[in-house]
Amino acid sequence: MERKNQTIVTKFILLGLSDDPNVQFVLFATGLLIYMFTLAGNLVIIVLIRTNHHLQTPMYFLLSNLAFTDICYISSTMPKMLWDLMTGNKTISFAGWAFQMFCFLITAGTDGVLLTVMAYDRYAAICQPLHYTLLMSQPVLRWLVAMSWAIGGVNGIVDTAFVFSLDFCGPNKIVHFFCDIPPVLQLSCSDTSLAELVTFMISGGILIASVSFIFLSYVLIVLSVLKISAAQGRIKTFSTCASHLTAETIAYSTAIVMYLTPASVRSREVDRVISVLYAIITPLLAPLIYSLKNKEMQTALLNVLGKK
Predict the structure, then answer these.
(1) 233 — phi, psi (to 5°)?
(2) Which candidate, 207, 17, 178, 195, places its Cα nearest to that of 108?
(3) Helix H or strand E segment including 298
(4) Residues pairing with 3 in the sheet
């Protein structure tokens, strides 16, 4: 295919996590275990919340939606990576590249907004307990979840459209294991300044707004907790936020490094490591974070297993 005497790339090659063929099987086995554990862990969270009446609260409603989003999130990248490792065929079509990028961006954006909504839930429960039922009613919850997917959809549609509109006529090897924005932009032979600006405004705007809102929520939560006279009461109250704060810290710290720091200060190897953390490890850790230190989830699981 020719355009302005330049060959337009119609497919790309994902180089993956390593160029060494000797470690492909190890990466495949490790990746498959991670993927299966992530799917199983998040599915268990959804089933427990939907079937246990003790978990029919706004916090767990949001958690079940986050678990579903995490399944979609990791499924946007892992199946293709596992297929590449198993078959050795690392090519992806132009349309396949656009579809994977869209799926990743919409689920990543939705996941980030849901984490922000969960921080708001903790703020409402601790700082506005008398109005909590009204602030987090079922209609409000459904609207917040719908809003999260709408923002994620804007993130996916706009960013993919601008990157997709660029010309790719040079090298077609993506030094990555999935079609993320930064490594793909490096391959374009056209001016990427507008695409970089738009993607920064959309994805960066969602990221900055979410982090700012979460930070403000926890500042207000801390100020409210400090007003509790009993030390044991302060610990018990703040412990309800510990799992959310841990998940939010892991998710946003890696995303900030990847999307809000200049690419010139990072190597491609560092980018791949950071991408593994936010695209694979974050959804993997979510079931552990929300279940191991959550007595209500532990009790629900034991009830299902018939041990309590």
Answers:
(1) -65, -40
(2) 207
(3) helix 295-305
(4) 6
Percentage of the chain lying above the pLDDT 90 cut: 30
Give the H or E element holding residue 98. Answer: helix 94-127
Would you place residue 234 in the very low, low, confident or very high pLDDT band (cuts 50, 70, 90)? low
Determine the Cα–Cα distance for residues 277 and 108; give it in Å rounded to an integer: 13
In the chain, the number of structural domains is 1
Rounded to two decimals, the pTM is 0.87
Q: Identify the pLDDT of residue 233.
A: 64
Q: Which residues pair with 68 in a beta bridge?
A: none
Question: Which residue segment(s) compose the domain that 53 sits in?
Answer: 12-305
Looking at the domain assignment, is residue 51 inside a domain?
A: yes
Mean pLDDT of 70-91: 90
Residue 4 lies in a domain: no
Q: Of 111, 44, 53, 49, which is closest to residue 77 (Cα–Cα)? A: 111
* Cα separation, 242 vs 133, whole angstroms: 22
C-beta atoms surrounding 246 within 10 Å = 16
> Which element (helix H / strand E) includes 225?
helix 205-226
In a domain, 1, yes or no: no
Q: pLDDT tens digits, residue range 219-231? A: 898 888 887 766 6
Helix, strand or coil, per DSSP, at residue 7: strand
What are the start-end ranges of the E strands in 15-111? 91-93
Which CATH number goes with the domain that contains 40?
A: 1.20.1070.10
Lowest mean pLDDT among 79-83, 145-149, 248-252: 248-252
d(CA 290, CA 248): 12
Is pLDDT at 21 greater than 60 in this prediction?
A: yes
Q: Provide the b/e sequence for 59-92 (b: ≥16 CB within 10 Å).
A: bbbbbbbbbbbbbbbbbbbbebbbebbeeeebeb
Secondary structure of residue 304 in the 3-state scheme: helix
Query: Averaged over 196-205, what is the pLDDT?
Result: 86
Q: Please name the residue that has the structure tokens 């907004």.
A: 113
Residue 3 lies in a domain: no
